[in-house]
Predict the structure.
Amino acid sequence: MRRMRSIKKAAADYKTVDPSTSVTIYYLRKIILSGEFSCRKSGGRYLIDMDKLDNYLTAQDDQAIAVEPESDKWERRQVRKID
């Protein structure tokens, strides 16, 4: 049987397992509304399959995120001329 939860309940489940988690209601809404994570909708409520969410978050951890050094970011910016 699937473990289906609303957004609030899913965030609360993660909070009970790990009180310092970064998985919040706002984060879950963001990934659902942006289309990054698919879920079911029942009436006005989004239902999340917790097993799929666990797999999604694990896959996100496995992907390396390239962080641009701060110095390179500022060197490319230029002041625009005003005519």
